[in-house]
Amino acid sequence: MKPDFSYKFSQRIEQYITKNKMIGHGDFVLTGLSGGADSVCLFLLLNKLSEKLKFRVHAIHVNHNIRGESARRDEDFSRALCEKYNIPFKAYSIDVLKKAKDLKLSVEEAGRIARYECFNDYANILSENVALMDTLKGRADIKIAVAHHMNDQAETIIFNMLRGSGLKGVSGMKPVNGRIIRPLLCVTREEIIKFLSENKQHYCTDETNSDNDYSRNNIRNEIIPSLIKLQPRTVEHIAYMADESGEAIKFIEDTVKKYFDEYCDKEINGYRINTKELKDENAFIVRELIIYVLKQMIVNYKDITRTHIEDIYGLFSKGKGKYVMLPYGITARKEKDSIIIEKS
Questions:
Q1: How far is residue 341's CA from residue 312's CA, in Å, rounded to a whole number?
Q2: Which residue pairs, CB below 8 angstroms and at least 24 apart, start in 188-192?
């Protein structure tokens, strides 16, 4: 007897949702529905699981106004799919090219920002519906489901590595990040296509996915296939590495928070780090502690570089009175048994 792939596939997604506590009873799950294979797969699975897990599904479609008639086709397809399954549907129309120009961003990044703005807008509309939320008596939450899968995770990690990212970059995307949930992060693109094929479900194809002028498309269409030729399970192996990196980061963050509570004192304009207690501690953890302290003081952290962190760490071995200057008017100076990091 042929194994029921679709049943086992759905079961894996359900177990992944439950394991990561993605959705609670009564929750509203707003799922992005582009009409492409990944989002259609997620839509079908959420609709299937909604009755069993007791949550409600709404679908959001964002037209980027880049592809003309084919983009309108995708919107019509998505709307019809929601009508078929009686799922509330909301379409947004965004001029992403103009947004990219105004914000001086790539079209990729502007599109990503636009999508999440639309998701959050609809989430706010739901949360402001007093009559609706009152019936839930505060028990329900609003989640935003996006269709990232293992292949997307591999793309993200390779992209971050090429940009020179550290450990956090190779931990990739999280299954749950605030109200954002990623139920498909445990399956590959190939499995998604197989699921849709077995269920005879059509989907739309975005022709820009084959345009390698976009950096992520180049990784998707050129780099990852080359790696798969060397190792067929490349995507799964990268995803497993991301999971382990995430666990390591959680351990590091817990350790750094503990050290912050024990060895750092609040000052009027900043923080005092006790160097006497930390001088024999692991250098990596101490650097992470310095970063943690700076993040308590700075909203926009992007101009603080690795060199700045090394300069502050270097003060541990310097004498009293030595100091370094950082962006945002921040100074780090050495005293007898401490380093004071403060805003001038």
A1: 9
A2: 188/149, 188/150, 188/151, 188/235, 188/236, 189/37, 189/38, 189/149, 189/150, 189/151, 189/235, 191/9, 192/37, 192/38, 192/41, 192/149
Strands (E), the chain: 28-32, 56-63, 89-93, 142-145, 176-177, 180-181, 264-266, 270-274, 323-326, 330-334, 338-343
Give the residue from 79, 97, 96 showing the smallest Cα distance to 88.
79
Place of tokens 């965004």: 94
| Pair of tokens at residue 265 | 């004192």
Half-sphere exposure of 206 (CA within 13 A, CB side): 18
- Euclidean distance between CA atoms 291 and 167, whole angstroms: 14
> What whole-number distance in Å separates Cα of residue 231 and Cα of residue 226?
9
Residues 6+ away with beta carbon under 8 Å from 215: 106, 108, 159
Contact yes or no for 256/290 (Cβ under 8 A): no
Backbone angles phi, psi at 295, to 5 degrees: -70, -20
Of the listed ranges 84-88, 185-189, 315-319, the one predicted with least confidence: 315-319
pLDDT digits (tens, 9 = 90+) for 200-244: 999 998 766 656 555 678 888 899 999 999 999 999 999 999 989
